[in-house]
Structure formats: C-alpha cells, structure tokens
Amino acid sequence: MTNLDSIVALAKRRGFIYPGSEIYGGITGFWDYGPLGTELKNNIKKEWWKSMVQMREDVVGLDAAIIMNPRVWEASGHTKVFADPLVECKVCHKRFRADKDEILLSHEKTHKEKVSWTDPKQFNLLTEVYLGVTEPKEKAYLRGEITQGVFVNFRNVVDSTRIKIPFGIAQIGKAFRNEITPGNFTFRSREFEQMELEYFVKPGDDKWFDYWKKERMKWYESLGMAKDHLRLRDHEEHERAHYARFATDIEYNAPFGWSEFEGIHHRGDFDLGNHKLKYRDDIAGEEYTPWVIETSGGVDRAALFFLLEAYHEEPVRNASHSDAGGEKRVVLKLDPRLAPKKVAVFPLVSNKENITAKAQAVYAILKARYMTAWDARGNIGKRYLAQDEAGTPWCVTVDYTTLEDDTVTIRDRDTTKQDRVNISKLVAYIDEKLGSL
Ligand code: ATP
C-alpha cells in the first residue's frame, strides 16, 4: 500500500498540494493546490459533472452562495446539533475529537505519564463570520455543508425549469468546518470542497437509495479505483447525522485505515420539511414534501485517494536508449481523464533550431486542445521520468525522422511503449484513447 508520506512529498515536490500560508508558518487544516493539483481537482469535478448532470435528463446544476441568511442554519438544525464531541487532555490541555479512538490513542502515546481526559462536550463545527458596517456586526456562518443552498432554492429551480419528480440538483463548492482535529494531510481539513447531488423523490419511492449507492461506486471504479480498495459501510444508528434516516459511506482503504470519502444519505423529508417547502404535482393533483436521497462526496478526499491509488514505484522496464538508465521510476497511473496534463511535447535535442521549431508547431496544435506540457531540458529519459511523476499519459518526441516524414514518437506512460504517428493523426490518436475510456 502506498504510504501517505510518499504522497505528501510528491504533492509538494511536483506542485499538487502545498501547506496553506506556508511562508508564515502554515495554518492548521488549510491547503493550497498547486499547478498540477488544480488541474487534477478540476478534472475530478468535470468528470463528476459530466456523469451527474451532463449525461442525465433528470438532474440540473446549481451554484449557491457560501454565506446564507443565518436563519437557514437555525432551520436546518446546524446551529444546535452540527457538533462533534470534544475532550481535553488533563496533562497538556490540548483538545481532541472524542469519537475517533485512533486520535486519542496516538495522543496518549506522546505522554509518559497516564493521561486522563475531561468529559466530552459537544463542540459546534460551524465557522462564524461577521458582516456589516455598524457595530455590533451581524453574525453569519460559512456554510458547513453545501447542501442547504440546494434546499433553499428548491422552489426556484422547480418554477424556473419545470422539472418533475424524481429529479436531482447537483452542486460543487466549498464548505467550512471548524474541525477539532484536522489531519491525515488533506483528509480532514477546515476548508474543503464538496460535490453533491440532492435527489428528490416521492415519499415511499424506495428504490433510489440503493440506485445511487451503486451509481456512485461505479463512478469511482470507472475512474480507476480498484474494487477491493472500495467498500460500502452502513452507518450504525449512533453515527448518523441529525438529518439522516439511513446512511452509507463509500470508504477507501487508505494508509490510515478504511476512510469515508462519500456519504449516501437518506434525508427523508427532514430538510424540505424544516424549510416548509412542498412539491405540487399538477397532473396527479397532489402536494407533498419530497424525500431526499443525497450523494455527498469530497473533492479533496477524492483527489487524495486517486493520488494514493495511482502512485506506483516500479523498475524502469524498457531501459532502451530513450528511457532513463535509472533503476526505479515513480509513476502516477491516473486515468487519463483525470491526469493534470494529457500530453507532453519534447524536441529530441534543444540545440537544433529546425527540431525545436517543428516541436513548437506540434505543441501549438496540441495545446489548443489539451493541457500540454513542454520540456526541452536534460535528456529524453529524464523528461519521461518527470512526466511519469506528474501522471502525463503521453509524451510526444520530435526527432530527426520527423523532419523527413512528419512522424513523431508517442510514448505511453504505463507501458512505456512507443508508437510512431504522423503529426496529422496525433489529435485523432489521443482523442481515440481519451474517448474510448
Ligand atoms: P467525518 O465523519 O469524516 O467527519 P462526515 O460524515 O461529517 O465526515 P459528511 O458531512 O457526510 O462528512 O460530508 C460529506 C463529504 O464531505 C465527506 O464524505 C467528505 O468527502 C467531505 N468532507 C467532510 N468533512 C471534511 C473535511 N473536514 N475535510 C475534507 N473533506 C470533508
């Protein structure tokens, strides 16, 4: 299994993820995505949107504001019960989340003496903000989940789209939680991004909870997660959030244990009921409060788990003249749809003007279509290794033969095999590989 330190190091070295505010000593629970990480996250969101919105007739999108009228959070129950149990170590007075045994055990080990804990207190996770120009300023909250923005717009969406139940509203956006114990790299952060579907059904229409569990598992598998690294785990009654009738987590076999990265929740009529919103079915002539099935995934946790899944260290298989002479390569075998750069272009040598000019022409064609890297430094073998670490699926090299017959080599990241392709067929070659996925 990939260890977390390898990913943290790679993320920093190659520009996937940096510690937030690093030059000022960092800030616990916040992370910044670098050039490659931004692409990876965008690609995850793009694929999610494609499968959840673009390819479906029964789902529409929404992008609600992060800050809402505080009455929303009172109606939704969050100001009262959106809380985790907190305990304080009586030795050093540090505070921890009480319902995660591994966190407490690991702290107990840091003390020589026997640790005792205070009784757990409920600690609210909502992040407060203060707005306005007169004192005292008005208190509002950064949203603790993106979900409520969908519910408060339920009527707007129904009225403006005429969409009929069963239907869904999909949204991607930032959420904030004042987590007691952030940690495991980006896994538990205080600022993170969620991708959620709220699917509205007629009360009693029971098939959708199972349907969405299966759909969501299929999506992660279709993007390269091994079946045996994923599992569904039903919540015990005491774990369920205040709004959930049933809840199942999709978990990943992470280096720190099986961990949730998406929750499928049956929210019943809890939320629309709280906001006093109903649905009117004109054809059947009835009015009711729909049930909601929610799929709530974390973009950051997905990015972390896709990186863990993709990370491989392996011997350089094809140590031909063009692959590096090194023993080992680090390769991110990301699904090409998720890969930050789809293709890299290299002039075989950097000191021949005609080769560089030809390679630039190829680069111009490719960059108009895909995120494309350019590298003319060092030898080709080193450039391959650098692209392997970044997860770039294809590398195109312009060499002396190119000047004669307009063909280039295209090397596959996973097999390290090379094909020779005419420049005029390059886009079709890459599109075919991307499109057939
Ligand atoms: P946990 O039990 O790990 O605290 P949760 O059950 O409270 O998580 P949900 O409220 O179901 O999480 O949130 C849905 C999704 O949002 C999670 O599956 C996860 O991917 C993401 N998420 C929640 N909290 C965080 C966080 N602190 N950092 C990163 N992602 C998060």
Number of helices: 14
Low-confidence spans:
none
Strand content: 25-35%
Number of strands: 23
User: CATH H level of the largest domain: which superfamily?
Assistant: Bira Bifunctional Protein, Domain 2
**Helix proportion:** 25-40%
Mass-distribution shape: globular
User: For the residues shown, what is the average pLDDT?
Assistant: 94
The count of domains is 3
Major sheet summary line? 7 strands, mixed
Secondary structural class: alpha+beta
Give the C-alpha Rg.
Answer: 25 Å
Distinct small-molecule ligands in the complex: adenosine-5'-triphosphate
CATH class of the largest domain: Alpha Beta
Strand arrangement, largest sheet? 3-9-10-16-13-12-11
- CATH architecture verdict of the largest domain: 2-Layer Sandwich
Note the gap between the termini: 26 Å
The CATH topology of the largest domain comes to: BirA Bifunctional Protein, domain 2
Overview features:
five-stranded mixed sheet, alpha+beta, BirA Bifunctional Protein, domain 2, 32% helix, 437 residues, seven-stranded mixed sheet, Rossmann fold, binds adenosine-5'-triphosphate
What this model shows, in words?
The structure is a single chain. The chain has 437 residues and is α+β, with helices and mostly antiparallel strands. The chain is built from 14 helices and 23 strands. The protein has 3 domains: 4-70 and 128-307, BirA Bifunctional Protein, domain 2 (2-Layer Sandwich), CATH 3.30.930.10; 83-124; 341-435, Rossmann fold, CATH 3.40.50.800. Strand 22 (407-412) and strand 23 form a beta hairpin. It is globular and about 70 Å long. The mean pLDDT is 94. Adenosine-5'-triphosphate binds next to strand 10, strand 13, strand 16 and helix 10.
